Amino acid sequence: MVKVDIIISANDIVESKIKDKVVVVIDMFRATSVIVTALSNGCEEVIPYLTIEETLEAADKICRDNYLLGGERNAVKIDGFDLSNSPLEYTEDIVKNKKVLFTTTNGTRTLARSKYAGRILIGAMINAKAVAKKLIELNQDAVIINAGTNGNFSMDDYICSGYIINEMLVYGEKLELTDIAKTANIIYEGNLEIMSYVKQATHYSVMKALNLDNDISYCTKKSIIDIVPEYKDNKITILI
Known about the structure:
The protein is an alpha/beta fold. Helices cover 38% and strands 21% of the residues. Strand 4 (67-73) and strand 5 (76-77) form a beta hairpin.
């Protein structure tokens, strides 16, 4: 029986909990939504970096015609970068056949801390069904890691985890859910409309204050993209 667990923030990642397991990293507001969207729109690969400095150093070594710089700090676009952390900016005409060098406050930090996992998949509300299906196909113990916000629990990432678990259960598979995974599923089933729950989240308030209503609307759409990205060999591409 496949066991499913949840880790509630990047700060709570422990090697023993994820070692050799399949991990799904979620930062739905907005890093993983960006990654899923960019790759769906023809981006060749997303290369995550922990710091702005590392991102710029890597950019200096690549032909400028082949890449874009994307990301944020504290939800705001980084000076000198091409794109922010809004998935709506990563359109096909912008990202097709390009590489995106990417750094964010919470998402890329979570990816870096997940390095001990056997596999690292990228999840969001917008590709949750595809992620659930892939986890069932892989038939291995899975840990869903919520990026959280500055090391703290995020309601938005948690309900997204619940959605993925709920979709796994739809396939009729018997899962061994930890208490925190069971609770995520219960919360999702009690808030199928999503927005009434998510709007109570701290990061939702931050995004509203920055007038990112369109991003909020997009990132809370359910399963509008049917791909599963995988982080492997220091880059993220579509898992075939």
